[in-house]
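Appendix B, example 12.
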Amino acid sequence: MQKGLRSPLLCKGCEGIINDNFEKPFLAHWLDGNALATLNGKRGMILSGIDYTAFKLFHLSVLFRAHYSDLPNFCEVDIGHHAATIRNMLLSRNAGRQWDYPVVCSAIEKPDGEIWTDLVGPAHSIMVGSLQAFLFTFASCQWIYFLSSVLTPELDELCLKEIGELPVVKADWIAMKHYRNMARMS
């Protein structure tokens, strides 16, 4: 059985689509493939060779399921009318363009400089400037999912790219908590 928070939300067929097409590829590339291994000793890097469609749809499936979940960790996740669009993207296996619901990643650094691999936290609704987003903590990272089709130049530098690249910056846990609190206040 895979790790993580669980709540029965989907029929067996839809669960199979998400598991086979999005979760297993993410697991194979990110966790089993130890995608962040080369980040140790560096402040950041650009990961390449990512299957954009599977990777992006995995993250959209996390956002989609959190929206419908009744688990306390996801109580701040309300994507409103975006749920129907994301549902259609998942069912049609269409990840859209990189500016359609951009995904940003920061690796979590422990005080000893290593990547923190076993940290999972609640999802938070945040504002980044004027853009609504949701912050999730799992798989050694904090992930920000934007509810926007507006890609600012700053966001374009940081988000998952259609060419299969993902910029990853390493930040320590204390700084991440500070930035999260600042983002929530804006």
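Residues 12-185 form one domain. The chain has one domain: 12-185.
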